[in-house]
Every structure is written in C-alpha cells, then in structure tokens.
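Figure 6 in text form: structure in, sequence out.
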C-alpha cells in the first residue's frame, strides 16, 4: 500500500536508507554506488531507489529541502515501510573558520531555530542527537580521533572529516552574523536544514538516524559552489554512511 507521498509497495525499501536532499543526488548515488538499483517511487519527483551494496540491501530516497519535507519522508519510511536506519547525505554551509569546501561534518547534535521540534514535548527543550551506533560507526570509518598522518601524506590538505554540532535552520538566506558568531563560539560547525527534524522523527518512531554533510559553502569566506557541483558532493559521505550501516 502506497502512502500519500511514496508510491512504493511494502518491502520495496531496504531497512537502511541513504537520504540526500536533492533527487538528482539520489539518482547519482543509485547509479554509481548501488548494484541493481531499481526505482521504487517518484511521487512529486522525490526519487527513491533500492539496490544492494556489498550484497546488503540499501535504499536511497531524496528528502527534499527543509524540516517539514524530511519529516514526512522519514516518518513514512519508519512507520509504513519497516525502515530501521536513515542516514542523511547532505550539503551544509561551513560556519567554523577551519572548515573548507569539500570537508565533511558528521552531526553529533543539531541545534535548531525551528518550532517543529520545540513543540514536540510541551515545556521541554528537546535534544536532537543521532544514533550513537551510527555516529560511532561513521566516526570510526573516518578515522576521527586517529593520530595525524606523518610524512608526505601530511603535506596535502585533503578533505577532512569532523564530528560536531550543526545548526538545522528553517532559513537558507538568513542575515544573522551575531547569532552565527555565538553558535560558532559554542562549537557549532555548519548549517543545514534537516538534521534536527530527522533526529526527532527517528526518536519518535523508534528508528535510528545520522546526518553526514559535505561543506558546499563557507559563510565566513563568501565561497559557494554552483548547483551542478553540489549534486556531486556525496562520495565521502556515502562511503562513511555505508560503513556506519555495515559496522553498527
Ligand atoms: O543538499 P541538501 O541535502 O538538500 O542539504 C542542504 O541544501 C539545501 C539548501 O541548499 C537544504 O536542504 C540544506 O540542508
Ligand atoms: O543549509 C545550507 C546548506 C548549504 N549551505 C548553506 O549555507 N546552508
């Protein structure tokens, strides 16, 4: 039975789902990473595929942009399709000054300016946190906490992976320098638009979730990638997400 927003039948989705915001990124992941991927839903242009990776079933479904959108898809996956784990494969704006475009942030917490989750439990400031097992699996795969490389490898600045809090915002075009400075002073690494709601939905539905975002813009340096390059920013985050699925 399809849901209002997904055309798939029961059993069409794997228990593990990768979830980029962009439907084109979902197609590229299905085409380039999964084996035997088949389209299972295209309602509203939100594309979903199921295939395998290293023999294990894996799905990829776009979330669209923003917390209302990802909340609908995550709820329907957990509630009606027996999905157990969702890893968001996103892009984000770098807030902390040590970040560079192409770096990856694994979100161990998500602050938010949204009312969606503030209203979830009256009187409570809800903590938006990921599945510890998925977080630990992704961080281990990324070598976070390992000793720094020595010798020649040390010289090249490759894409780096960080674990830290993100801001999940309802607004992409926000003029809030003072707020951003305070957030950075409190350890926030990057801004995106879905992780907090995904974490809250996973908690509510008894599932597990994690957000892994690639930096596509720098808020402090006026650097921003064009749309076609954002579409391609997923290699490292998908690799870490799949490793987290396999290890947890
Ligand atoms: O690239 P995705 O996964 O869509 O993520 C980021 O990009 C969109 C804004 O450009 C928002 O959805 C934000 O969270
Ligand atoms: O939400 C987002 C995503 C990418 N870059 C931003 O600045 N914000």
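Output sequence:
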């Amino acid at each position: 039975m399809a849901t209002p927003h997904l055309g798939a039948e029961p059993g069409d989705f794997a228990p593990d789902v990768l979830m980029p915001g962009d439907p084109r990124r979902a197609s590229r992941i299905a085409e380039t990473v999964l084996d035997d991927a088949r389209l299972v839903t295209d309602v509203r242009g939100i594309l979903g595929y199921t295939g395998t990776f290293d023999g294990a079933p894996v799905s990829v479904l776009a979330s669209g942009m923003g917390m209302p959108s990802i909340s609908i898809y995550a709820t329907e996956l957990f509630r009606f399709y027996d999905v157990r784990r969702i890893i968001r494969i996103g892009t984000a704006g770098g807030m902390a000054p040590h970040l560079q475009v192409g770096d990856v942030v694994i979100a161990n917490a998500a602050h938010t300016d949204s009312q969606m989750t503030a209203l979830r439990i009256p009187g409570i400031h809800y903590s938006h946190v990921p599945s510890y097992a998925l977080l630990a699996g992704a961080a281990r795969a990324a070598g976070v906490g390992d000793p720094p490389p020595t010798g020649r490898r040390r010289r090249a600045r490759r894409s780096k992976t960080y674990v830290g809090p993100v801001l999940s915002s309802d607004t992409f075009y926000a003029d809030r320098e003072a707020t951003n400075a305070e957030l950075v002073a409190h350890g926030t690494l990057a801004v995106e638009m879905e992780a907090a709601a995904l974490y809250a939905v996973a908690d509510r539905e008894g599932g597990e979730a994690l957000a892994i975002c690639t930096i596509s813009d720098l808020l402090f340096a006026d650097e921003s990638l064009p749309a076609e390059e954002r579409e391609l920013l997923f290699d490292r985050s998908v690799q870490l997400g799949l490793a987290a699925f396999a290890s947890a």
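Caption detail: The CA atoms of residues 2 and 198 lie 21 Å apart.
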